[in-house]
Amino acid sequence: MVRKIPTQKxxxxxxxxxxxxxxxxxxxxxxxxxxxxxxxxxxEEEKKCLKNFEINKNKYLLEYKNGNLVSNKQAIAIAYSxxxxxxxxxxxxxxxxxxxxxxxxxxxxxxxxxxxxxxxxxxxxxxNKNKSKKYDCRxxxxxxxxxxxx
Length: 150
Description:
The chain is 53% helix and 9% strand. It is mainly alpha-helical. It folds into three domains: 42 residues, no CATH class; 51 residues; 49 residues, no CATH class. It has a three-stranded antiparallel sheet with strand order 1-2-3, with no helix packed on it. Strand 1 and strand 2 form a beta hairpin. Helix 1 runs antiparallel to helix 2. The chain is elongated and about 90 Å long. The termini are far apart.
């Protein structure tokens, strides 16, 4: 039995690289959540989105080089937005990883803030427990330890 996907490993190529497989279908390199690259069979819409994005990216990077844009990041952001405007379904196929990284970082910050708040509240509760203890020499009520010793 012959392997349908391309003969080379997906790890040798960049993400979103398109190559024809042994079954004459087009395959795209994708990345799993654990970081392993794999070949995914592409459909027509995905191919159009990737080509449209590459055209827009090259166009706006040229404008950046000509001095019309502030930075190359701005050029890439415009390319993403133009691609999404022409075909809103491209959000499924184009991975703007910087946005997902920013979201992950903000979620981590929120979690760490919650943990810090919970630790502070635990410390306050412990200190309040220590202050509220009063002793009676016989029944441990209404007097502090110092008064019992006297």
